[in-house]
Amino acid sequence: MTYPETFGGFVVRDEVAQAVVNLLQTPPPGSAYPLIVYHLATVERKQGLQPSSLAQPATYRTGLDFENWQGANLPMLSVVAQPTGQAERYSNETGEGVYGQWYEIQVAAIVEDPTSGDETTAQQLADRYGAAVMLCLTQNGGLGNPAAFTIEKTVLTSAPRTDLIPDAQRWLAMSVTTIRSFVEQVVQESGPISFGPDPYTAPAGWPTITTVDVQLQADDALGNVSPGSGVIVTDSTGHVIVKE
After folding, report:
1. Which sequence spans correspond to the domains of the chain?
2. Which DSSP letter does residue 29 get?
């Protein structure tokens, strides 16, 4: 998605979480398998498991917590993203004020092992999915760099942490991997010079400069500038942009 240049780029929180979901479930070029499956297969080989013994995720979702799951939707990869710390202000290449923001992103792999009913087996299963998620998040650059905004940096802050799910059967477990990612331009300071009558119509581009009136300044012997001298710049709407 592109945004009107008059408002500049900005990012909605859920777009950050959705970018992670897109990374996990989008197949690499030329493949029909989601990217996470390649990392699941890597874990299988390291652990001496049969190929495809770690089932492909049945569900990918974003949310504010990891509570919304059902057994029929497992294995599930659930993503929560929230801003963390202060926004960082800098000037972009055109000198405009821009704010970047770090986000804490948690990805939970929620799994079950109903066949044996053994909590140790469920924990091992969650461990393996967590390892695959960690590989996927840390070894794929800026999380896919979505077209609408740029995720500049990705830093692992916690290796997968596995726990049993509270108030659930002991054959259910969850492994949570935590990263921090920097969104380069979460919002910029400059906006429209004026607004039209309809907020649902995208504003036009910046007005074009049509008149530049340059007047010579005359100084007397004491250095005083004569009245009325200076520079006047007007735009296509008749507004005076600069008057000095």
Report:
1. 13-188, 209-243
2. T
